[in-house]
Amino acid sequence: MIPIYTPQTESEVAVISSMLQAYEIPYFIRGGAFSKLYPGLQIKDYNTQTVMVPAEFADATRELLQDFIHPEPHANVTDPKFSIIRIFRVLIEMLLIGWVFTGKRWNKKADAEKQDADV
User: Fold this and answer.
1) pTM of the entire structure?
2) What is the per-residue pLDDT across 82-91, written as a single tens digit (0 to 9) for each?
3) Are 13 and 37 part of one and the same domain?
């Protein structure tokens, strides 16, 4: 069996498995069960998963998984822009956080009077 692709997430594994099953390509996911036992930091050959197929299906699988192996950058994706106004607004919200949220506030004097009345 030939390694084809190392998925980065469980959702990628699910989609790739579904695609290979739909095209009736035999496959094996090396490290599939072990990676679920030790999630988190991905360490090569320890808890990573690798899609493996027989040699005669390697070319068809690479063609099928082309979007995963060599993804095209999206032209319409933009980085978030931070402006001075946005930073200023966040700072003001941090300073006035007690004013923004409504609800019961802790009042030391009222709590002390309530305790005296209970005694």
Assistant:
1) 0.56
2) 778 877 877 7
3) yes
